[in-house]
Amino acid sequence: MKADIITIGDEILIGHTIDSNSAFIAFELNSLGINVYRIYSIADRKIDIIITLDEAIQESDIIIITGGLGPTNDDITKKTLMEYFGGTPVLDEFSMEYINKLLKARGIEATECNIRQAEVPDTCTVLRNRNGSAPGMLFKKNDKTIISLPGVPYEMKGIMYDEVIPYLTNNFSLPVIIHKTILTAELPESGIADILNIWEKKLDNNTRLAYLPSPGIVKLRISISGNNKDQLKLKLNNHISYLSKIIGPKYIFGYDDDSLESVIGELLRNKKKTVSTVESCTGGNIAHRITGIPGSSDYFIGSVVAYSNSIKKDIVGVPRELISNYGAVSKYVVEAMSVGIREKFSTDFGIATSGIAGPGGGTKDKPVGTTWLSVSHHKGVYSQVYQLGDHRGRNIEKATIYALNMLRNAILEFE
Amino acid sequence: MKADIITIGDEILIGHTIDSNSAFIAFELNSLGINVYRIYSIADRKIDIIITLDEAIQESDIIIITGGLGPTNDDITKKTLMEYFGGTPVLDEFSMEYINKLLKARGIEATECNIRQAEVPDTCTVLRNRNGSAPGMLFKKNDKTIISLPGVPYEMKGIMYDEVIPYLTNNFSLPVIIHKTILTAELPESGIADILNIWEKKLDNNTRLAYLPSPGIVKLRISISGNNKDQLKLKLNNHISYLSKIIGPKYIFGYDDDSLESVIGELLRNKKKTVSTVESCTGGNIAHRITGIPGSSDYFIGSVVAYSNSIKKDIVGVPRELISNYGAVSKYVVEAMSVGIREKFSTDFGIATSGIAGPGGGTKDKPVGTTWLSVSHHKGVYSQVYQLGDHRGRNIEKATIYALNMLRNAILEFE
Fold first, then answer.
1. Hey, is B274 helix, strand or coil?
2. How close, in Å, is residue B86 to chain A by CA atoms?
3. A260-413, which class in CATH?
4. Contacts of A315 in chain B (CB under 8 A)
């Protein structure tokens, strides 16, 4: 079963609005085992709607259209669909009732424009909109199903859940597709590709792997399609176990919707441990990530952003001679920082970062991107140097991810 | 001049990723006076790429493709374009140098996979990628221009700014369009719309206003098109002066590419002043924003993320009885925090935040979203309470923006 999605609206083509509706619809269709073939964004123009509908009907079984159902003159989807599929306008009682209720609350009478909102072509099946005045519409043409929904996200989502998904489930015999995403940190995309190369080449046509990279992180999404859900689950789990083994737990921090900071939060909460951070090059980003998780105050005590050396010395207690002998970006200073913050803030774990984020500040011995990270706990202190790139923002992001993953591994090893 | 945009990547069709690249490209093309006709999202599948290219080449003059240029097996755009446009692979020296530099920093040799990354068909013009290993490519076919860019947003944006926009400007005769963006903080979109209502209604057809909102910030982009650049500039400047006056300098923090943190950085640098922060509800995000600016160590000394009350007392010096009498989220505590950090870190300005970011922790008197912000300097201390929303991430973001704008106004008033 194949589907196309068509988003209608000038605001997308002029770049003022990011089309998030399509991603939602695509996700829901895929979950039902319906493959999305193409997503189109087109203008509020009759001829464009007709051309695109013609194409979509030729290539797919189901077409879901969003947008252009509003009451203003530039919303022409309904008029165009009435021309395309034929029919005459009839009043949809459910929509008219909704509109009247709205107007009554404001103490005004329905205008012609309001009534037009509640009219649909008699060639369609109405899809009830419980969150707005524009009804959804379902048309059939040569065994193809064409669905028109409003562009307002919560109205569109309401009709999808209330009407479209039940309709598709009841009227089509759908295959089963299941997905799982492995979340990795620190490894580059090409490094993972090398590890997975032999496995990837042996995959059958029903199994697909997608690499989704962002600074410091690569997500691996595996999708399997077929008929028997239990068999697919077994197959997927076998893939996941195998990949988890060959990539290794040091780099895999979670699955699906996990984040490094949510995984760390759960580990700390379960082990009843606390953490504090002292950040130089990451400038507070590690604390920002950790405190993005609701309830993080249970295990996150606080942080010092030690940007100047005097703060490293006076607040965190790094010995003056370490800084003067080895420089702030050094193994000795970063270790003294992570040990110092752990003691000062009385936490079980301490994290420290000290690096040259760039673009300035590099030297021959310590070029831009040189970054020392450290984690300490009651049994000792661990540190590692990384050579990141020359882009400040990405260096900060990568150092944050690497430090959080270092902490995650330290918590796992911690007895 | 018409353009199509094609986004290639399974992750969009399975609904895993929202296509934000297209909005960026559409926005930039529109800014050049190039109309975007259709945006397509398609899978990493050869046949789909070819069918869509055929269609796009028929309907538009310029086609910009993103995605599918990674080193992994699912990235097949380059292979497909080489088939489509003909040619044989040649090594692009610039890309190979970039890759070798990266690998050298990690102490490893180039693999076959790395070298393939740097190869391009000899039928294309290379568009240099300064932020990644996948080069952009430009092909010509029957007077049509086809451009292929990586899908990683910062790499795509880099090539757009460095290569694509200059190419389009130099090789096509485009209408004159000029833009300027006013950057505002704290005011809601609807509040600004009310202020601008009368002015907006009087605009002619060649003048367009776009509202671009994000948490705590609304950007107002004014575009004017015509023939005479000097006349347009004069007209645009008149609009900008008028709007700046009616919105007011308290809320306007900059123009175009400014950011609150870059504006603050420049002010502090010019006045030779320093700042430190103590953050509770913002969890380090203010420090993270300030230190995102290169050279911020000149005026940013450091920060304490005081998540637990013990840190507020022991490190920042907030009197114990203020916390027990008024609670951590109160005028007295947030002021003691901003004064405390300023003294402790010996800076000219101190910023403090204390609020209930949510979703838990609210009470009847202090519901989720209650946020106290404070700025202190040698003449005194200022604080204000805000009622933000019930979404943790947005509350943190808004509190950060409001605090930075409070600091900006304090620096401007500071003699």
1. coil
2. 26
3. alpha beta
4. 302, 304, 315, 344
- Residue B136, strand partner residues: B127
pLDDT digits (tens, 9 = 90+) for A336-375: 999 999 999 999 999 999 999 999 999 999 999 999 999 9
Distance, CA of B338 to CA of B316 (rounded, Å):
9
For the cut 90, the answer to whether the pLDDT of residue B390 exceeds it is no
Residue in B24, B131, B360 nearest the CB of A391: B131
DSSP B296: G
Confidence of residue A404 (pLDDT cuts 50, 70, 90): very high
pLDDT at B347: 97
Q: What is the DSSP track for B68-112?
A: --SSSTT--HHHHHHHHH---EEE-HHHHHHHHHHHHHHT----H
Superfamily of domain A2-171, CATH level 4:
MoaB/Mog-like domain (3.40.980.10)
Structure tokens at A293: 């998780």
In a 10 Å sphere around its CB, with 0-12 CB exposed, 13-18 middle and 19+ buried, how is residue A115 labelled? middle
Local structure of B5: helix, strand or coil: strand
Distance from CA of A334 to the nearest CA of B (A): 16
Nearest CA in chain A to B22: A15
B154: its two tokens: 């910062």
Mean pLDDT score, B108-137? 92
Q: Count of CB atoms within 10 A of residue B86's CB?
A: 12
Residue A125's SS3 state is strand
Q: What is the secondary structure of A64-122 as a DSSP string?
A: EEES--SSSTT--HHHHHHHHH---EEE-HHHHHHHHHHHHHHT-PPPHHHHHHTEEET
Nearest to A129 by CA among A104, A152, A145, A105: A152
Give me the amino acid identity at A264.
Answer: I
**Which residue is it, tokens 């504090």?**
A276
pTM, to two decimals:
0.82
| Domains in chain B: boundaries | 2-171, 176-255, 260-413
* Topology annotation, domain A176-255: Alpha-Beta Plaits (3.30.70)
